[in-house]
Structure formats: C-alpha cells, structure tokens
Design brief:
353 residues, mainly beta, Sulfite Oxidase, Chain A, domain 2, Immunoglobulin-like, 2 domains, five-stranded mixed β-sheet, five-stranded antiparallel β-sheet, 23 strands, 40% strand
Length: 353
C-alpha cells in the first residue's frame, strides 16, 4: 500500500495517493489527514465529553456511556475544503493541496441526536458548537493567543439522523491522526466540519463566531465572507492515472463523483480540448453519502499526449464549472480538472520493430 503523500510534517498533513482510489473504501492508513495543530493524545480511560449551554441537563459522558447508545454506521466520502487549492490561479494562501485530500471510509459510532437527547436542548438552542482538544497559537485571531479548534452548525444539521460521533473507522478504533477517541462526522460537509478529538458540545442561541468559523474555513470573495459548509459537486478520474502510458485504441476511463447537495445524476467525459462531452455510465454508490462510481469508453487512434476531463451534475442541478470562483483562502475548488496521459502506438513495454 502506498503511504499518504506528506504535505507538511508539523503539523502533520497528508494526501491520499492516487493508487488508493481504486476501491470504494480508502484504507485507513492511506486516508488523507488534515491537522491545524499538533495531534493531541487523549487518555481513553479519563475521557469525558462535556455537553452544556442551552440544555436542561449538562452532562459529562465517558466512552463507556457513549458506547451504550444505539450503534450507527455510515460510509462517507469526506473532502478537505482546501483540496485542489493548487489548481486555482493565482494560488491562494494555505496548505498546498493537490487533488488527494479526499477519501471514503466506513465510520461507526452513535448518532449525535441520541447524545443531545440526553441533555434535552432548550427551545432557545439554535446551534451546536463542537470543540476539539487540538489547539495552538494564532497571531491573526481577533484576540491573539491560543485558539482551540471549534466549529458551529445549525441544530437541525446536528440532529440529522446521519450526523454522528464516530468511535471507529473502517472497523477499528479511531487512530490519533483521525481524531481518537471521538470525532464528529457530518456527511456531505467539507472536512473542517468533521471535528476531531471532540471534547465539548455547547448548545447556543447565538451564531458561533470563533476563529475557524469567521477567519478560516470561510469563502472570502472580495470582502464578502461566509462560512464553508457543504461539499460542492465534483468528480475525479482514477484510471488511467496522471502520466500513465496507455495503448491506442479503446480506452476505459473510470472515476468517482460526489456532492454534499444531492445525489450524482450525471457524469460526462471529454477527450482532448473543446466542448465535446459524452455521457458516462453511473454505478451505484455504497450508501447515500459515498461517492458514485462512473465509467466511460473512448477510442483514441493516434499516439501522443491525451487529455481527459470529467464533470459531474447532482440532483440539485449543480454542475462542475470550468473555473471555480477564486477566493482568498482557496476553498471549495470543484473546477473540472484535466488529466494528462501518454498514448503509445503499441502496448506499453512492447519492443519496437
């Protein structure tokens, strides 16, 4: 198995390597990792989840209590909001993510709705603020100093039956890099909403205005600022891979498509430049929140460089654009991405006459 491609060592950030996109579920060791601070290591025996704010009964839950709630499992495609940042022009500030900050895993745990039911939210509660144990200095914060990672989401999203507190990933207890012992999983939302190392839930009547809600993980477009939320419709070509040599003739192209705003209804493939698109055949996703497989066949008669492009459409009617709107921090790039390969006149490795 190929190791993730390390983007940064301190804090640790790494992309899924291209050869790990062949299967629906990405192996845990190959799944991309996004960290904003040093990885916290929490003691499982001493772990407590504090739930407070606009609730009738504040509680401090240990792992045993959490694990006694009804079990829930979901296969979820998760993408970092900064994925494909290198494809924007000019290149925005931030981690230099190429196209590997996306993956699919099977998460197991308990529904967040069941956890919140224990504390009985007040009628005044409108948002749930989720706080992780990771923290560090941020000189550009409104109040400079140490900042904890925290994100807010509407109560109706928190209580959606598929929003969970995950305890396992691909059938094994969470690793430290993926948020052990408890992380939030919000299907359909970019990765920043899936808070790792969760230690606090605060129900609030006010909109959350923390650092990672109004200064980072926001679309900053000419001073117009709004938080990043759901994943935009997107597709990728997984075979042939970038730079691969293929034989002239019939070529089978495969890939994945996903969206946080609805199911995938169409994927198209373009061979070369121009605007000649052909429909691909859609497969069946492994659940409502997992990416959709697709496949198309094209015939290439001449050797040389070949550029392939894919674009997806979801049930909301949204289609991948040729160019994604530029924003200062480089989030949400879902533009059509060209993949270049080489076409040989004979099978790769064959002797020339």
């Amino acid at each position: 198995m190929s190791e993730p491609r390390v983007i940064k060592t301190d804090p640790y950030n790494a992309e899924t390597s291209s050869d790990q996109f062949a299967t629906t579920v990405t192996p845990t060791a190959a799944h991309y990792v996004r960290s904003n601070f040093d990885l916290p290591v929490l003691d499982r025996d001493g772990y407590r989840l504090t739930i407070g704010g606009d609730v009738q009964h504040e509680q401090h839950l240990d792992l045993h209590t959490l694990s006694q709630l009804p079990a829930f499992e979901a296969r979820v495609t998760m993408e970092c909001a900064g994925n494909d940042r290198l494809g924007m022009r000019p290149i925005p500030a931030g981690e230099p993510w190429a196209s590997g900050a996306v993956a699919t895993a099977t998460w197991g745990g308990v529904r967040l709705a069941d956890v919140l039911a224990r504390v009985q939210p007040l009628d005044t509660a409108r948002e749930v603020i989720v706080t992780g144990a990771d923290h560090g200095p941020r000189d550009d914060a409104l109040t400079p100093g140490v900042v904890s990672f925290a994100r807010g989401m509407p109560l109706e999203v928190a209580t959606h039956p598929d929003t969970m507190l995950a305890l396992t990933m691909n059938g094994e207890p969470l690793s430290v890099a993926h948020g052990a012992p408890v992380r939030l999983v919000v299907p359909g939302w970019y990765g920043m909403a899936n808070v790792k190392w969760v230690v606090g839930l605060t129900l609030s009547r006010e909109r959350f205005v923390g650092y990672f809600q109004q200064q980072r993980y926001v679309y900053d477009e000419g001073g117009m600022i709004r938080p990043v939320t759901r994943m935009r419709v997107k597709s990728m070509i997984t075979a042939p891979v970038e730079g691969e040599t293929v034989s002239a003739g019939s070529i089978t192209v495969r890939g994945w498509a996903w969206s946080g705003d609805g199911g995938i209804t169409r994927v198209e493939l373009a061979v070369g430049g121009g605007d000649a698109w052909q429909d691909a055949t859609l497969g069946t996703p492994d659940g409502p929140h997992a990416w959709t497989p697709w496949q198309a066949t094209c015939v290439v008669d001449h050797p040389g460089r070949l550029v392939l492009r894919s674009r997806a459409t979801d049930s909301s009617g949204a289609t991948q654009p040729d160019v994604s709107p530029w924003n200062r921090l480089g989030y949400g790039n879902n533009a059509v991405r060209p993949v270049m390969m080489h076409v040989s006149a004979s099978p790769p490795g064959a002797a020339n006459d």
